[in-house]
Amino acid sequence: MSAEEQVLNYPIPTDAALEPPAEWAELRGRCPVAPVRLPSGDRATLLTRYEDVKRVLADPRFTRRLTAPDAARLSAEGGGVFSSEMAQIIPDGGEEHLHWRRLVIKWFTARRMAALRPAMTRIAEDLVDDMIKRGAPADLKASLGFPLPVYVICDMLGVPAADRDRFSYWSDTMLNLTRYDGAEIAAAQGEFFRYMSDHVAAKRAEPGDDLLSELIAAGGPEDGGLSDVQIVVTGIALLVAGHETTANMIGKMVSMLLADRSRWERLLADPSLIRTAVEESLRLDANSGFGLPRYLNEEAEVGGAVLPRGTTVVCSMAAANRDEDAFGDAAEMDLTRSPNQHLAFGSGSHSCLGQALARTELQVVLEVLLRRLPALELAVPAAELERVEGLAVGGLRTVPVRW
């Protein structure tokens, strides 16, 4: 086999919506630092082992500078959310990045999430009521998975949830690496930017009890706060990340738990397992999307391979989360697994800001569904579930359920 034929196309296709491609295990064992070809045709290096992925995500030499002239383009149209000009406005490293995180993360503490929990539960209850009223079969993703995180993040940002169809389209253009052309992506980003700029201006005139008003109140860069354009981009980033990833994860988690009904029965018998079941669903998610791309500023050694400066690395957290060296019986879903140091939210100073929010939403969804719809089941065989193609964050097209 020639070297050209050995270069895998990435993302690696798989037929089963909930199962990983067989290549992950092969790569971890044989070629943990693997050359791959991206949708753009450019080359990158794929990491699939837990230790390598964890180390690179915490290593400041591996940056988010995906607009560098020699960085690989993720798709023919560029890199969507990863390498748009917007992505460069939020500081990507060092003290500036830590400062930005400190200003924003106050809104995502476990304490704040505990305070939000009753409101989240009410929203979930109302959505389940509506789903029951419309009758089975229902699409759990459209009925609950998608609207719940949108309502919650809109509330946190002080943005009208009535605009959610627009956010949904704008998010999709920023997160989809294959579906839209350059002109559509640019137009959507421009509309989103104008929308959020108007929203920030309105908050400046009439502040509320929300994250954007608090960022404005902190003052500009000279007062230790953020510039207006940074506040706008922070709002966009949180709106995109805060609904799209969790909306998709709700559908995947429930599908995983219903694919083998004994898992659902176990949670019905012992709801105290909800917290560890959420973590295990995050770990076992085989369809988490593209992974995290990083650009290497200087030569570095990873997993026994020397990577030259200018290399674009793709960290597959989903492949790393199934590494037998890091997790016993890594391919099995163990609802009691603890500790569970999965990398679903990344690692190091760039780990997901909204992880406490995502965890709380996932736990609330399970609590409400187990209580209200104990007879819930998939309305199609798990093998017939279909992936959303081309999305930087993985998801299922629909999650048909009945009860």
UniProtKB/TrEMBL annotation:
Keyword Nucleotide-binding: no
CDD domains from the UniProt entry: Cyp158A-like
Signal peptide region: none
GO molecular function: heme binding; iron ion binding; monooxygenase activity; oxidoreductase activity, acting on paired donors, with incorporation or reduction of molecular oxygen
Keyword field: Heme, Iron, Metal-binding, Monooxygenase, Oxidoreductase
This protein's record includes keyword RNA-binding: no
PROSITE patterns registered for this protein in UniProt: CYTOCHROME_P450 (PS00086)
Cofactors named for this entry: heme
Family: Belongs to the cytochrome P450 family.
Record-given protein name: Cytochrome P450
